[in-house]
Every structure is written in structure tokens, then in C-alpha cells.
Amino acid sequence: MRERWFGATGKRVPEIAVEDELELGDALVLDDVSDEAALKEAHEQGRAVVVRAGSAELVKAALARPEVACVLDTDPVRGKAVAREYAKLYLGLRNYTQNLLDVGFTEGDLADGGSDRLIDAVIPQGSAEHIAGVVRAHLDAGADHVCVQPLGEDGIPRKSWTALAKALLGAV
What we know:
Blueprint (H helix, E strand, L loop, with lengths): L3 E4 L5 H7 L8 E3 L5 H10 L3 E5 L2 H8 L3 E6 L3 H15 L3 H9 L4 H4 L5 H7 L2 E2 L1 H13 L6 E4 L7 H12 L3
Parallel strand pairs: 2-3, 4-5, 4-6
Antiparallel strand pairs: 1-3
Helix pairs in contact: 8-9
């Protein structure tokens, strides 16, 4: 069997599934994701994580499961403040910032907590209907499910989940 690789982040992930080539550098390479301590350490260091996959189908399946961190708040000032606070960690990790640069954002977009353009594109804010549209775009692009992570609520985000469920199911 040919060896296949899946990279959690990186612009070459789709071609890696075909080419079986990857320059690993300082990436953490795992056979599965059960080593939580190693994953946490790699995340804190900003190291890429690469997981071996047995087939191209497993790689495609892993790539078809995006996460959308979002802020359900129609006040743009509050929404962006919550989004920027969440983005702060990721804007300090080189694997994330390099991916953002690779897809067309600039160093200026990454500075000072992220430009409005970056924050709006990466962490959508607004009404439940707006966020539902972002989720639907992922589904329309081939995702088989989307992990939705509402930000800005204390504890379990039941209010946001309920509003999003109604919007996604058309019950609003």
C-alpha cells in the first residue's frame, strides 16, 4: 500500500494525498491523534501536525470537516472584539499565520489583532442567518459536516447553538 499523509494545516495537503510527498521539517508526525500531550505541545509551539492516513479517501474525509468559529452578535464592534480576542492565539502561531499568508492575506492583515478583512473572513460575526450562510457555503463546497464554535457566550453556548439550528433548519 502506498503511504498517504494528511496535514492538519498547509496549502499542499490536497496534492500530498496524490503525490505522497511531504517535506516534514519540524512537523509532529503521528499515526493517529490519540497522543493529546504531543498534540498540545505541538500546538503551543506552533508546529505543524501531520497524521498518516491509509488511503486517499481518508485524507479527503478529513479535509471535508471544517470548523467555523463565529460570533452571533449583530453589533459589529462587539463581534469583532470577541473575534479578535479568539484570534489572538492563532495570530501568534507561525503555522496558522503562514497559511493565512499563503491564501492571500498580508503581514498587515496579521498585525495588531488582525485586520477587519482577516477577522471577517476567518471568524464570521453577525446574525444567525449570516453565520448559517457561511456554514451552508462549506456544505455546498463538499463538507459532510461543519463544526460550529460560537464565541462570546459564557459557558455552553446554548443560545447561539439554538439560534444557528433554527437558521440552518429554516425555522426562523
